[in-house]
Design goal:
Blueprint: E1 11-13, H1 25-34, E2 41-43, E3 46-50, H2 51-60, H3 68-73
Antiparallel strand pairs: 1-3, 2-3
């Protein structure tokens, strides 16, 4: 199952509130500095995220849990 949370063809500005679904703005800045988190683009001082990259990053960080049947046995 692939989640499509963000519009794939849109460039999101770092100031866009939608990005708070991933992490607060300060945390995203820390991630960029450490080169972790979703891929980003820089235009001078402006930071942008491509929607397709955000969706890919979200899906790559998805953690599957045990099925409900297995959880009931435990």
């Amino acid at each position: 199952m692939s989640l499509q949370v963000f519009e794939a063809d849109r460039l999101y500005d770092d100031a866009d509130d939608e990005l708070n679904l991933i992490a607060p703005k300060a945390k995203r800045a820390q991630w960029r500095h450490r080169r972790v988190g979703p891929p980003f683009l820089k235009f001078g001082r402006r930071v942008k995220y491509h929607g397709a990259d955000l969706n890919s990053w979200i899906n790559g960080n998805r953690i599957a849990t045990a099925s409900p049947e297995i959880q009931q046995l435990g």
